[in-house]
Task: inverse folding
């Protein structure tokens, strides 16, 4: 059969289709979904398009719906007009499905809502001797050939009952162009999805109303995998020890997600069964554990993943308690430990569309860095994070009630504690602040050594007496025992400083190395994006003072919140963003820092606790 | 991106592909699978093709494998050469995968073996720092982009273990272009499929070796659904009574199939897990019950099916004990009760490619009729069969040991009994024989009445005394009590004759009506095909004498055995045949006989027990 090219304007997408294809089907093949409330039967007149070139003659239905003037101007019903030659088709915005635009918080990012899950209410004719079509054909015909039959036997089994119980007034649920389920009556507004960001430490879930793309509830909790180790390395070790370890870690995160689903649904008054899809981001290790796939290959060189591309699986197969036919879309990974969460950050911040030199740093338990310029993207991961989330720091803790989150030193030490309660530990931003202040007053040297009381001169007395020493070395008391929760005081040790120093050197050194791939240095960064909760809370002047981030002018630094989670919401609400995420995952070059010559030099240089790059 | 047309010769299939597509991928899109033992890496030289038109310049790999002469003649490696313009590609037979040709018994039918299930042995490079590809990418890359990632989580979970246990020497199992499973080592020859014909009364399973298409074992058994009623109508009633009835019928046929699998595998020495796919034919009701889908819509006008098109489901979801990832391909139905088995008959007999007027009659428990001429196909179903399978006949039985299968009347009655044992009943062919002989000697009138002894004259004494009478009417004793198994004798009653008369009238009348759709009559039939075991065993002269089949010259009548089962084997061993089956199901017009004016007139005329069409 002859094939012709159909070009769709204004987007300029083109497809090759066989003669006789409806413009509706051709548009779908080109990625454009047109409105068809009548089910593509030529009655509603919503799929208007203007054609130039090879189409067949208007049908009698079209002549009835469109006037002679409209027909003369080239207007046709896309569901009726068929390709008869090469053709150009202009599709007005009003003919396109779901043109809501939503604003996603955290980053300024608009998207056209076009979820993978679509629900269409159908009022079908009952079977008759004149129209004895099979039940499935009756449904699929009304969906105008957009949708393939269900591949799951349960949906087929339910079909005749649902159709007849509801007297053929049903709602078809489709995903990825496949019929997922049928529901009695018109339930098309009752469609929810869940965007999930699986962090090494924290899991966040956003419940979204799919037809509008609006977030209706957010829930978060600790990743209970933490009981098996704080960082990805220890979890990989346990998962690699055998099927039981893997099952335990996989089960832990599924349990957390099920709990978040229950809470978010309860808060929004939405039944769990109204969730038809989950979109999930996480680092590579989290992605593997979530699917129950062994991350053993990530445990040692050459850091091999089992899968890298996007995965679509059944929620039921993972034990997730939502609609029984619901899908899980796992955003693709980039490489090594740089996972889907980084794809989410790039998507949310549009780094893939940057002209100027832009850098994003996502400091969670892992630290991921992305540098971008003119569509060229490089990413790396550092095992930098735990220090900033409290791990490895003697009295470190997460940014929760009782955490010292900022520190000022004048004639004495003044700390701010989250929740305005007695302090019981120090969180990431407090740690950065404390170190920066202690460097400023001379208690910590630029090389990171915490001095003994007798080595420092000119300190105010109240500050000096906080410098203590015990069998484990020197420490600086931020909160005295009597001021603290539990009465043990809160102190920062010399070792804690070393831990932080290692973490920040990995991040800064890694960033320098990535920038070098673009022939640039830290000073050339036009915009530095700080993703993750940590990015929101650190005092930037402290971070700059100790060389955690480059000493850029303030206006070039921006916090973008949980950008990975925003990315998960974007792919949940838009198949366009999904395609873009997959494109990003393919395009970003993963750089394995430990394999790079020069990394350890840069790492050593970046250990210095002073503004970087050094002005030499 | 520019798109170009690639035409593949000698088949003349063409595809539209983006610039830069390899000829290998373009060929796959056109339905041609080329040999790539090296995994499409340009090393083995097996995917040779000769090109004219737009391709890029030969790669260095090609220059190494092919000589300058070959290159000058336009020979290229399809895995390396890329489309750069419209191009014509000639693919020699030696480059195509699995070019075995097999002969299928029953009908003379050749096919190119090209199963949906493909197994490819791969010897993959182990990961290294230079080549840290993800496991899944490593496998898919070696399959040259023919194959999509697995959609089932179990396959992904098994991936890293299988790869490493077998030191990256594995066999990839793919179906429908999707990666189904991986196995350690090279198991590519260990690939089996099962073709199943679910009859209302009998289930037959053919175990086939997929790489060669050869049948290695056959097993058959009664359809144990029969305990819930002999015919489809009673089974529909039970299945419609509630979920339990449906589950019982569905479970019954699955149990039978599992039993056949065990027997066939035992006979051939093949493990059940080596079966990767089942192809299944059956009438519409059997198809629905097999999938556990309610056939209630078939129970009354307008006889609505739940599904009509081909279905692919997981064997595990149906409880079938084969490879855990195995698929079930259910051949599409035509309409009403005319199901996948009739598609199988058409496929096996190539009725879809007939020029002359050809008719196929498949008499099982249902009787299906297909008429074909010049690609035009009409089909109908009659509830005719049970009489010929023993049901509704007082002493009817299946064609098993002890069944009277032929009857001759001279000065006495001579019966042949299957197995040469004492008779205990009468099967279909014996029934047709008995009626034909009794009509010939004047005991049964052309209108079907069995006369009383006193109404017949000139009978040999030994024949006359077999005409008996009791409270239920007249009967003709075929075997006296003392000759018979169990001592009750075997007799044919006047009512039995009426039952057979109804059945044969439905078949003959239905055939006449279908022929009329083509403007023809029974005398115009150029070839009459008798499918089903019954067609093999009836004496044709008897069938013609009583007007069960038209009185055509013997050379125009052919028995084709279990053609439905042959059809199931064809689609199991060839995706081409599968596409053709789907095309057939779309093309055949289903005629609902009961809805046709004129059917009852024809039915009444066809009741006459004499050669038909009547020579008037």
Result:
């Amino acid at each position: 059969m002859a094939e012709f090219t159909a070009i769709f304007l204004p987007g300029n997408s083109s497809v090759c289709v066989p003669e006789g294809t409806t413009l509706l089907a051709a548009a779908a093949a080109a990625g454009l979904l047109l409105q068809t409330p009548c089910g593509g039967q030529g009655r509603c007149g919503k799929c208007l398009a203007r054609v130039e070139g090879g189409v067949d003659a208007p049908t009698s239905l079209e002549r009835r719906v469109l006037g002679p003037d409209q027909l003369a101007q080239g207007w046709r019903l896309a569901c009726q007009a068929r390709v008869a030659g090469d053709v150009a088709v202009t599709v007005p915005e009003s003919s396109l499905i779901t043109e809501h635009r939503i604003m996603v918080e955290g980053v300024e990012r608009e998207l056209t809502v076009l979820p993978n899950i679509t629900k269409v209410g159908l009022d079908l004719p009952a079977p008759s001797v004149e129209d004895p079509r099979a039940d499935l054909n009756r449904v699929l015909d009304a969906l105008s050939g957009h949708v393939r039959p269900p591949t799951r036997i349960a949906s087929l089994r339910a079909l005749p009952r649902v159709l007849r119980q509801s007297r053929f007034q049903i709602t078809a649920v489709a995903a990825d162009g496949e019929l997922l389920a049928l529901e009695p009556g018109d339930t098309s507004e009752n469609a929810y999805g869940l965007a999930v960001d699986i962090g090494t430490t924290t899991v966040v879930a956003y419940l979204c109303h799919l037809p509008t793309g609006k977030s209706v509830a957010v829930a978060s909790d600790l990743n209970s995998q933490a009981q098996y180790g704080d960082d990805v390395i220890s979890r990989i070790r346990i998962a690699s020890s055998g099927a039981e370890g893997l099952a335990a870690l996989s089960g832990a995160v599924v349990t957390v997600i099920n709990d978040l689903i229950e809470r978010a649904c309860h808060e929004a008054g939405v039944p769990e069964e109204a969730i038809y899809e989950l979109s999930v981001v996480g680092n590579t290790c989290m992605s593997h554990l979530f699917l129950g796939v062994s991350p053993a290959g990530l445990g040692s060189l050459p850091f091999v993943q089992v899968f890298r591309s996007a995965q679509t699986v059944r929620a039921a197969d993972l034990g997730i308690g939502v609609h029984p036919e619901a899908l899980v879309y796992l955003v693709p990974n980039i490489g090594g430990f740089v996972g889907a969460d980084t794809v989410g950050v790039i998507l949310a911040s549009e780094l893939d569309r940057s002209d100027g030199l832009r850098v994003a740093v996502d400091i969670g338990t892992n630290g991921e860095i992305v540098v971008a310029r003119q569509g060229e993207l490089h990413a790396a991961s550092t095992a930098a994070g735990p220090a900033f989330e409290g791990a490895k720091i003697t009295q470190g803790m997460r940014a929760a009630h009782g955490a010292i989150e900022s520190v000022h030193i004048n004639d004495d030490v003044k700390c701010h504690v989250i929740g305005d309660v007695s302090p019981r530990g120090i969180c990431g931003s407090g740690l950065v602040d404390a170190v920066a202040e202690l460097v400023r007053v001379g208690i910590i040297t630029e090389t990171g050594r915490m001095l003994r009381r007798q080595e420092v001169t000119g300190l105010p007395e109240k500050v000096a007496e906080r410098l203590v020493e015990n069998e484990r070395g020197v420490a600086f008391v931020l909160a005295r025992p009597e001021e603290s929760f539990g009465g043990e005081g809160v102190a920062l040790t010399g070792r804690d400083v070393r831990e932080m120093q290692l973490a920040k050197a990995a991040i800064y050194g890694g960033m320098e190395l990535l920038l070098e791939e673009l022939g640039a240095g830290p000073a050339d960064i036009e915009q530095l994006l700080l993703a993750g909760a940590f990015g929101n809370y650190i005092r930037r002047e402290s971070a700059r003072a100790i060389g955690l981030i480059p000493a850029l002018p303030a206006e070039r630094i921006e916090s973008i919140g949980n950008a990975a989670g925003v990315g998960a919401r974007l792919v949940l609400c838009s198949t366009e963003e999904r395609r873009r995420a997959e494109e990003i995952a393919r395009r970003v070059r993963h750089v394995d820092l430990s394999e790079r010559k020069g990394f350890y030099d840069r790492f050593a240089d970046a250990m210095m606790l002073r503004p970087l790059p050094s002005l030499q």
Notes: The longest strand of chain B covers residues 214-222.
